[in-house]
Design a protein that fits this description.
The protein is α+β, with helices and mostly antiparallel strands and 238 residues long. The protein folds into two domains: 156 residues, Jelly Rolls (Sandwich); 71 residues, Winged helix-like DNA-binding domain superfamily/Winged helix DNA-binding domain (Arc Repressor Mutant, subunit A, Orthogonal Bundle). It contains nine helices and eleven strands. It has a four-stranded antiparallel beta sheet. A four-stranded antiparallel beta sheet has the order 2-7-4-5. A three-stranded antiparallel beta sheet has the order 9-11-10. A hairpin with a 2-residue loop joins β10 and β11. α6 runs antiparallel to α9 and α7 crosses α8. The N terminus is likely disordered.
Length: 238
Amino acid sequence: MISFDSMKSMLDESYKHVACSTCKSRGHGLFNGISGAELDTLEAQRACNFYKKTQSLFVEGSTPRGVYCVNHGKVKVFKRGDEGKEQIIHIAKAGDLIGFRAMFSGELYKVAAESLEDSNICFIAKEDFLNMIEFNPTLRNGIIKELSQELSDRADFITNMAQKSVRERLAFSLLILMDIYGEDPINLSREDLANFVGTATETLIRLLKEFKEDGCLEIEVRKLRVIDKIKLISLAGN
């Protein structure tokens, strides 16, 4: 009979040795167009590691040393205010690439990144990644497109969050999180969700109760499931 520790070790090993050629998340990310010898190079240059929930990838003010590709799990990208309160500005899911923006700017990280759940994340060193961009036009064009799209999305996000009430911001945030979590329930702590919406945790809890009573949400402990998207869109003021 296999012990719990042995099973855990086997699970961790399965996370650490995900081949790029069989990675299901690669098809949803910037490395989708890489194949053949370039895929073999990517496989040789990257290191894949298991991150436990709340484990840090990088901290604000540190030097960018490479990029992180989420194979499994989710990562929050956030910035701390003057009083130490977090503002979550992005939640990365499987297939997303984290950390490449700071490399291009040549500046220290202006944000921090931390795993929201047990995650498998691959790391590619800065020099190797920049070489890949130089010799792979598909990857280079994908990154340019990603940066352009992000600028547009960020402008829409900031406008929405600045001009909406807290109630509207929560509805808008839940719609974004629906896309991130897909068919799975939204699984964030109340504090993280409040930091994503940009409100106090107490206010968030009160509004979630109201959304549940309005028939928009099902709530089970910390997990949320949207059951009336049309009503939620209306509450978001969209």
